[in-house]
Design a protein that fits this description.
Elements lengths: L2 E5 L5 H8 L3 H7 L6 H6 L5 E8 L2 E12 L2 E8 L8 H10 L2 H4 L3 E7 L3 H9 L3 E5 L4 E7 L14
Parallel strand pairs: 4-5
Antiparallel strand pairs: 1-2, 2-3, 3-4, 5-7, 6-7
């Protein structure tokens, strides 16, 4: 893998829309990202970041990171259909840990649907643990990045 990370920009809108075209699974789970212009409106330099990731020029996926409280970041991850099941989830999570915004965090959190077994496996394999359920029937998961960081145990979702 030769992954290249790019900050999400207007130039990525068509490529991301093409990934979602015909992706019923992606639309069911993360339809918000099918039109990245929505995410672009939320981005800022302090609390909301997004990247597209390519492997040898081919779009692999999209990562959204929001700083929800000091030291706590919430992530969302989308892998394009042609790239699923090939280890990219792990590679993207590993790459996310090397980004500047994450270096300042103690904890990463995310939510995943009960039936999204691939995402649950990926998060668990990358050190995330289930901490409860979000109010909308999603499993809350977290990864403590610093030994000094206490578990948020779902508090960041409220």
């Amino acid at each position: 893998m030769r992954l290249a990370w790019e900050s999400l920009g207007k130039r990525h809108v068509r490529a991301i829309a093409a990934c979602f075209a015909g992706d019923a699974e992606g639309m069911r789970r993360v339809a918000f990202y099918s039109d990245p212009r929505r995410l672009l409106r939320l981005m800022d330099e302090k609390t909301r970041f997004a990247w597209v990731v390519r492997d040898n020029g081919r779009l692999i996926g999209l990562i959204d990171l929001e700083i929800v409280r000091e030291g706590i970041g919430a992530l969302a991850l989308y892998i394009c259909p042609a790239s699923r099941g090939k280890g990219y989830c792990r590679a993207l999570l590993d790459g996310l840990l090397a980004t500047d915004p994450v270096r300042h965090l103690n904890t990463l959190i995310g939510s995943v649907e009960h039936d999204n077994e691939a995402s649950i496996r990926c998060l668990r394999a990358n050190g995330f643990v289930a901490t409860g359920e979000e109010g909308v029937g999603m499993i809350e998961m977290e990864k403590v990045l610093s030994r000094a960081a206490p578990s948020v145990r779902g508090d960041a979702f409220r």
